Hints:
By secondary structure, this protein is an alpha+beta fold.
Amino acid sequence: MQLRAKEAAVKANMHSVHVTVEDFNTQAQGVYPMDFATAVSTANPGVFNNTATVAGAVSGMQSVPPCILPQSARNPIHKTNGLCFFSGPAALAAAPPGILAAPAGAAGDPGSVWYGSADAAGNAAVVGNANKYRIYGYGVYERMPVPLSSGL
Length: 152
């Protein structure tokens, strides 16, 4: 029961990231963040003075304001050292064009959420051209089988 509760918390964190990224897209007028530290006004220069990010610079795995993601989100499995639940950069693993593939996962990943952004062709996004994304969660033992993506 405890393991299922922890995995349910990971799914809730995935949903929180999904809602936050869609909120960013609304504020940036149609552009998704390249990574969690991309500011709205950087992603779309037509939006002035909006320095909000998804989770900030994620320095030391901590969200840094001003960010859209709630500060209450935490890793439900690795609770030590105040670790936030994000794992790894927003870079895409090698994958065929049009497919966003997450890293396989590592020993420190349980409970974490991974975000990857891409341009229309599926190549790793740069600032201002991210128009799709994929969000993966890592359960207690392995990656969750169902990712979240843009348009859902």
